[in-house]
Amino acid sequence: MTRAAPLLALALCAAALTACGEKSEPEITGVNDDVQFEITGGWKGELRQRKMKPFPVHARIESLERSKQNTVRYGGEIDCAGTWEYLGVSETAYRFREVIGGGRAGKCKGTGTVTLTPLAEDSVAYEFRGGGIHRAGDLTRAGSA
User: Fold this and answer.
1) What is the pTM of this model?
2) Which of 21, 90, 130, 139 is most buried by its number of CB atoms within 10 A?
């Protein structure tokens, strides 16, 4: 009987673990190209970055396939320009890789990730993270950048 007890306990544990795995979990893909929000077009706004005065931004998202056509220009103290390469979209936000390559006296360079989260039909929350920098603000639709 003492030999049967450990085997019985093992069988009960196996049955319990099998029952735990019966619930099916939803598949999370991380990318949803069926988002109803139209991100292409011109965007403008004012951004905040630590230890800087608020500054303007103008962006134009022409294509999610041809990133060189997606341009961004930061004014104020930054005075730099670059491109946004489309990385993908989740259920809540669009992501782009920003590459800065021009601007004030050749001192503008760097990369990071821009996240645009739709707030309303004509506005998005902007967030940039990269190289130890964080900047944020809200953008609204513009005619051109």
Assistant:
1) 0.72
2) 139
